[in-house]
DNA sequence: AACTCGTGGTG
DNA sequence: TCACCAAGAGT
């Protein structure tokens, strides 16, 4: 039987010597649940580098969950713009309002998991990091570290329950939050997806995949489907000192974000949102998670009131409030704003 | 269970 | 260039 206590102790020792300094990271026992929650939601499927500026901006604008709960929807969506996965922003606000109404964050994993936007990973992370509970945190990093440590060759996602079971055996009763962050840091900096730096790994002597020479091949994953290619058109229309925009429906792609009127992106045709001499500016290529999009960008000075969308005064308009795709489209109209 | 949902960095 | 992927959740 492997000595799990030795492995977790070695990892914590490495973490104490090499922990990265991050805006949301504080010693175990001093964490603010609000900041832990905010950072963990922002970090869902998003890199540390991309999150940093958003985290600083949000905590400056809204230092407490009560401040965030009182913020207007449109302002939160505008501040989230560019970070992606916009359901997170809508759930973030719903969660903040629920927590404010409850008077504070629940301090158990189950209590946290009942809130919008907090799933298996995030509930465990907040419970462990902010409340010191011995919950097991399993993200993509932990999946990779554990699959190598124990040489689990079953492909994901079928191996997930086994990886969770093994990670649970590793999780110590003391400092579970630091342990979780140690596992994730190890995965992010040493036990990386390609070319893992086994030579400087603090637990190389315990790694079964390393012993078998298959570390870089794990975790195995089932092949992914090809991305379909889709096309569409977006219209960027101008009125008198104004620009034609719309808020997209709450559900679906880019839900709830500020955008320019467009066709659906399934090839179906749709008339322009307003009369005007529409000129084709060019093509924007954008890769989403499950499809690639070629978006034709058209612009015009409007000659009649729009049938879709609303005219926003230009002085109230900032491309920073747009999701990335729409920023790219706008950059064809005003390259100097890109 | 499989699909939807963004974006930027990397090799 | 392009496929991969990053501190996942909701349905």
UniProtKB/TrEMBL annotation:
Family annotation (Pfam families) = EndIII_4Fe-2S, HHH, HhH-GPD, NUDIX_4
For this protein, the record's InterPro entries field holds:
DNA_glycosylase (IPR011257), Endonuclease3_FeS-loop_motif (IPR003651), Endouclease-III_FeS-bd_BS (IPR004035), HhH-GPD_domain (IPR003265), HhH_base_excis_C (IPR023170), HhH_motif (IPR000445), MIG/MutY (IPR044298), MutY_C (IPR029119)
Documented EC number(s):
3.2.2.31
Q: Which GO terms label this protein's molecular function in UniProt?
A: 4 iron, 4 sulfur cluster binding; 8-oxo-7,8-dihydroguanine DNA N-glycosylase activity; adenine/guanine mispair binding; metal ion binding; oxidized purine DNA binding; purine-specific mismatch base pair DNA N-glycosylase activity
Question: Which UniProt keywords are given for this protein, alphabetically ordered?
Answer: 4Fe-4S, DNA damage, DNA repair, Glycosidase, Hydrolase, Iron, Iron-sulfur, Metal-binding
> Which EC class does it fall in?
hydrolase
Q: How is the cofactor bound?
A: Binds 1 [4Fe-4S] cluster.
Pinpoint the HhH-GPD domain residues. 42-189
Q: Please name the GO terms of the biological process aspect recorded for this protein, alphabetically.
A: base-excision repair; mismatch repair
Recorded catalytic activity of this chain's protein:
Hydrolyzes free adenine bases from 7,8-dihydro-8-oxoguanine:adenine mismatched double-stranded DNA, leaving an apurinic site
Its required cofactor(s), as named, are: [4Fe-4S] cluster
Transmembrane feature ranges: none
The family database entries (PROSITE patterns) matched by this protein are listed as: ENDONUCLEASE_III_1
SUPFAM superfamilies, per database record: DNA-glycosylase, Nudix
User: Family assignment?
Assistant: Belongs to the Nth/MutY family.
Q: Supply the PANTHER family for this chain.
A: ADENINE DNA GLYCOSYLASE
Protein's job: Adenine glycosylase active on G-A mispairs. MutY also corrects error-prone DNA synthesis past GO lesions which are due to the oxidatively damaged form of guanine: 7,8-dihydro-8-oxoguanine (8-oxo-dGTP).
- Mind telling me what this protein is named? Adenine DNA glycosylase
Q: Which organism is it from?
A: Paracoccus laeviglucosivorans
């Amino acid at each position: 039987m492997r000595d799990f206590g030795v492995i977790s102790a070695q990892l914590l020792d490495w973490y104490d010597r090499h922990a990265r300094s991050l805006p949301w990271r504080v010693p175990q026992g001093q964490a603010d649940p609000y900041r832990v929650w905010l950072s963990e939601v922002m970090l869902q499927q998003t890199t540390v580098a991309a999150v940093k500026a958003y985290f600083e901006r949000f905590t400056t604008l809204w230092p407490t969950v009560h401040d965030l709960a009182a913020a207007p929807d449109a302002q939160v969506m505008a501040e989230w713009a560019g970070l992606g996965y916009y359901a997170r922003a809508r759930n973030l606000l719903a969660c903040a309002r629920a927590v404010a109404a409850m008077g504070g964050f629940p301090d158990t994993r189950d209590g946290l998991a009942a809130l919008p936007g907090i799933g298996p990973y995030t509930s465990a992370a907040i419970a462990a990091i902010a409340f010191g509970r011995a919950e097991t945190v399993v993200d993509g990093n932990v999946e990779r570290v554990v699959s190598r440590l124990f040489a689990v060759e079953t492909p994901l996602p079928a191996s997930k329950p086994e990886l969770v079971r093994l990670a649970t055996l590793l999780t110590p009763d003391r400092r579970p939050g630091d342990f979780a962050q140690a596992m994730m840091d190890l995965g992010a900096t040493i036990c990386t997806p390609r070319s893992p730096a086994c030579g400087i790994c603090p637990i190389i002597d315990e790694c079964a995949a390393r012993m078998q020479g298959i570390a870089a091949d794990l975790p195995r994953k089932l092949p992914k489907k090809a991305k379909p290619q889709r096309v569409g058109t977006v219209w960027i229309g101008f009125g008198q000192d104004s620009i034609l925009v719309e808020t997209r429906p709450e559900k679906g792609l880019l839900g709830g974000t500020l955008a320019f009127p467009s066709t659906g992106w399934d090839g179906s045709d749709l008339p322009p949102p307003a009369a005007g001499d529409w000129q084709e500016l060019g093509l924007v290529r954008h890769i989403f998670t499950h499809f690639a999009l070629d978006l034709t960008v058209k612009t015009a000075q409007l000659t009649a009131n729009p049938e879709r969308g609303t005219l926003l005064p230009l002085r109230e308009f900032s491309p920073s409030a747009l999701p990335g795709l729409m920023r790219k489209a706008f950059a064809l109209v005003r390259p100097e704003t890109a």
